[in-house]
Each structure stands twice: as structure tokens, then as C-alpha cells.
Amino acid sequence: MQAVLSYLAKNQARFLEDLCAYVRFPSVSAQPQHSGDLHACAEWLVRHCKSIGLEARLCPTGGHPVVIAKTPPAPAAAGKRPHFLVYGHYDVQPPEPFDLWTSPPFEPRVEGRSLFGRGTTDNKGQNLAHLIAVEAYLKTNTPLPCDITFVIEGEEEVGSKSLGEFLLANKAELACDAVVISDTGMPSKKHPALTYALRGIAAFEVILHGPARDLHSGMFGGTVDNPAMALCQLLGQLRDKKGRVAIPGFYDDVKPLATYERKQFARLPYKESEYKKLMGVRELFGEQGYTAIEQRSARPTLEINGLTSGYQGEGSKTIVPSWARAKITTRLVPGQNPAKIIKLVCQHLKKICPPSVRIEVKSGHGAEPYLVSPTSPHAQAALRALKSAFGCEPVIIREGGSIPIVNSFKKVLKADALMLGLALPDDNAHSPNEKFDLDCFEKGQLMSAQLWQELVK
Ligand code: BES
Ligand code: ZN
Q1: Does the C-beta of 399 come closer than 6 Å to ligand 1?
Q2: What is the CATH number of the domain that holds 212?
Q3: Distance 93 CA to ligand 2 centre (A)
Q4: Is 165 in the same domain as 55?
Q5: Ligand 1 centroid vs 122 CA: distance in angstroms?
Q6: Which ligand does the CA of 158 lie closest to?
Q7: Would the CB of 156 count as within 6 Å of ligand 1?
Q8: pLDDT at site 53
Q9: Domain that holds residue 265
Q10: What is the CATH number of the domain that holds 24?
Q11: In angstroms, what is the span from residue 339 Cα to ligand 2's centroid?
Q12: Backbone angles phi, psi at 281, to 5 degrees
């Protein structure tokens, strides 16, 4: 193990270069014009995995490729060893708005102990930390106590459709004892965390169609409905004054929070003033009766992610727009089902839509919520690895984000996810000026190196 640790210590400068090379690919899965960049990024990963001693291949799918990389077979004398998957994603969220970035999103830049760039924390830096730990074993000829298969996909940020199909087709090869994932966060560097629950998600778009074309608002305004106004009024009815989602049946299947969990949440580090400052808001707003930590990780929500209608250019243009569109996602908690929620939302919107506009609802990706025991032997091993790498007591948390594939790992491979996130709250995931903390990068590598030892104890 000493050889592994000194290999890690000696090669930090090169690891950072590798991460920069990885971040330079604009692998934006939501935007079709980047599909070539996703492919090139996957090819880079395969080459990189081979160069560190893994057996790697690029697996084409109906969408963006999946990269599979395995540790070389153990010597026959080692007998049958446990097998773990490490899951990560090489796709990133759209970088827009570009003008809010201090430096271009795909030109990684180091400032102090931060590496700025789209995808640094979500998720390239986090999955590279695991590749680096395994590289350290392989390059120092230190025997690994288990077999490890990396599964790195290119569609996480758009719902993981192709990986879902890939799992079903490659069940036997991917059969494993657990799936290790670093794609979540920790409250602070002093509070490394094991995440035991994620929210699910259901995405949809609402389009209101009005006049056949944009109309002169002076000539026709006042006689036809304005789809933008109608949409605002429609969406305004989806939330009540207490911050609850006002769709009949929305909360029916929500499992209430256990008292022990609420106590546990209350012990997590949280200062309202710092939290407000982090997000740049004057006041918080959320469902009454729950703390901010509960609201953001263990209660369901409905968010408008994008709203478009009419003229968006400079100056003014006096029109009644022909249509208005909203992109919406709901975050779901254990008990709730994405398909059922989409149905409820559709029915409700259609019911309250006025006849003066035509409504169209398009459903998008969905993922079920996830909950796993934080007391299993694997979870205990993960907590020991976190403690030894970060040098302080880890916490267990629920996270509000979603990782669509975790439920398929459970259903198809019967494997639980061990979520050991390396992101900090101020990493700006999905926002302009995303960064990854280089201490988290380094400690993440250490954590991963220790984890393989702890998991087989
Ligand atoms: N890394 C996130 C998931 C995450 C974020 C977990 C914060 C815990 C805390 C992941 O890359 C992500 O952003 N997922 C999407 C999935 C969606 C587009 C289907 C999400 O949660 O919005
Ligand atoms: Zn993300």
C-alpha cells in the first residue's frame, strides 16, 4: 500500500494534466451538435484506461458510447475475488450562459486549489480520481484485492437511456457485489459524506399554442389570448403559498421522514446566512414545516427549468406570440413513481388550461428515487475509507440530485450503490464557473485506494 500512496503523492502534477485533457472535450450530451465531441471524449477515455493498464473498450449504443474498462484478470492463485463496478459519466451539462464564465468553460484553468471548467466536478474529476487510484495499484504492481470494472457513460445528464439498455444486454459481464459512485457531494471538506438516498426526477415540457403566427399586439391584442400570459397563469397555479406543489395526488405516495432521519439531518453543518450567500438570495423559500436540508434532499418539488416565448432579442417588438413553452422537472422522493407523477401533472394541466389556447404536454426522461441502507458492511467500509482519506469523521446524507441509472443497477444487477461524492456545495455544478477542488481530487484518490482494501475486510 505504501507504494500506492507514494505513487499518488509523486504524480499529482500529471494527474491534473490528465484531468485538463479530459475537461477540454465539450461533451455536452443535451446538444446534438456535440455528438462528435462525446465520441472523441469516449475514445480519449479508452486510450487513457489502456495506458494505465486497464483492458478497455468503447461500446457503441443507440446514443453516446459507453466506456468499459477492467482490471486485468487476477493470477489463478488469487481464487475468485469480489467484483465491484465504478460508475461515472463523461457527459456534461450545457455551459450556457457563456458570458458569465470568467474563463471559457472548456479551457480548464487552475486558480489556487480549484480547477475551473464545465465537467470538472460533475463528473470528470470525480471519476478520474477512481481511475487514478487503480492506476497507482497497477503501475506499482500492488495486488488489488478485488476485480474492478469501470462503467463510464455519456448520457447521465439526459437520463441514461442507452446505459439502461446496455446493462440489460451485458448483465453477466457486469454482475458485481456493489457499484461505487462518486457523483454526489459533501457538506464541506471537514464532512466527507456517504450518500444513502437520491431524489428521482420526471421531466416534461408544456407548450401552449395560440394564434397561427406572431401577431401585431396593437391590431389584435385584447381579442385573442396571449399564450405567454396564459402559461404564466397556468404555471402559477402549480404551487401554493405554503410552497407545496398544488397538483392533486402529488404527495399521495410520499413516505414521511422518519424521526431518526430528521434528527440526523439536524446534526449536519448548516448556517442559513452562509447558505443564502452561496446562492445569492435575500430570502429562502420552500415547503413550510421542513428545514432547508430536508426541503432540498428529502421532499418532492416542482421546478420550472426554462421558459420561452415571444421576442428575446434586443429592444422591443410588439407582438402577441404564437406560442409559449416551459421546461419543467419534478424531483421525487421514495414512494413516488415518475410515470404516475407525469400522468397526474398532464391530467391536471389539461383540466385547468383555458380553451383560448391549445395545450401540448411532452414527457421527457424520468428516474425513480433511490434509498439504500447506510448500515450495511459495504457502507461501513466506505465510511472507514472516507475517514482515513479525509482525516475526519464522515457523515451520512440524502441528496436532492438524481443519478438515473442507480435504480437499474439495483433492478438488473441486484447491486447497491455506494455513493461517495467529492463535490463541494460551492463547486457550481450545472452553473457558470463550475470548479473542482484539488484537495477533494487528491483525497478522493486516496479514498478510492483505501476503499478496495476496506471493502474486502
Ligand atoms: N451529479 C449529479 C447528481 C447529483 C447532484 C447528486 C447533486 C447529488 C447532488 C448528476 O450529474 C446530475 O446532475 N444528474 C441530473 C440527472 C437528470 C438530468 C436526469 C440531475 O440530477 O439533474
Ligand atoms: Zn450533473
Answers
A1: yes
A2: 3.30.70.360
A3: 6
A4: yes
A5: 8
A6: 1
A7: yes
A8: 98
A9: 255-296
A10: 3.40.630.10
A11: 22
A12: -120, 155
pTM: 0.94
- Ligand 1: does its nearest atom lie under 6 Å from the Cβ of 427? no
pLDDT tens digits for 231-276? 999 999 999 999 999 999 999 999 999 999 999 999 999 999 999 9
Is the beta carbon of 338 within 6 A of some atom in ligand 1? Answer: no
What tens digit of pLDDT does each residue of 356-375 get? 999 999 999 999 999 999 99
- Closest C-alpha to ligand 1, atom 1: 183
Assess whether the C-beta atom of 164 lies below 6 angstroms from ligand 1.
Answer: no
Task: For residues 164 and 193, state if they share a domain.
Answer: yes
> What are the tens digits of pLDDT across the range 12-42?
999 999 999 999 999 999 999 999 999 999 9
pLDDT given for residue 365 in this prediction: 92
Ligand 1 centroid to residue 396 C-alpha, Å? 18
* 82 in the same domain as 17: yes
With a cut of 90, say whether residue 75 has pLDDT above it: no
Judge if the beta carbon of residue 201 lies within 6 A of ligand 1.
Answer: yes
Q: Compute, in angstroms, the gap from residue 332 CA to the centroid of ligand 1.
A: 13
Q: Is the CB of 125 under 6 A from ligand 1?
A: no
- Give the domain-ending residue among 367, 384, 407: 367
Gap from CA of 188 to ligand 1 centroid (Å):
18
Q: Indicate if 114 and 164 belong to the same structural domain.
A: yes
Residue nearest to atom 19 of ligand 1 (CA): 159
Same domain, 344 and 283: no
Span 86-120, pLDDT tens digits: 999 999 999 999 999 999 999 999 999 999 999 99
Domain count within the chain: 3
pLDDT-derived band at 78, boundaries 50, 70, 90:
confident
Query: Are 49 and 193 in a shared domain?
Result: yes
Q: Which ligand is nearest to the CA of 185?
A: 1
Say if residue 21 is in the same domain as residue 136. Answer: yes
183 lies in the same domain as 103: yes
Last residue of a domain, which of 367, 393, 419? 367
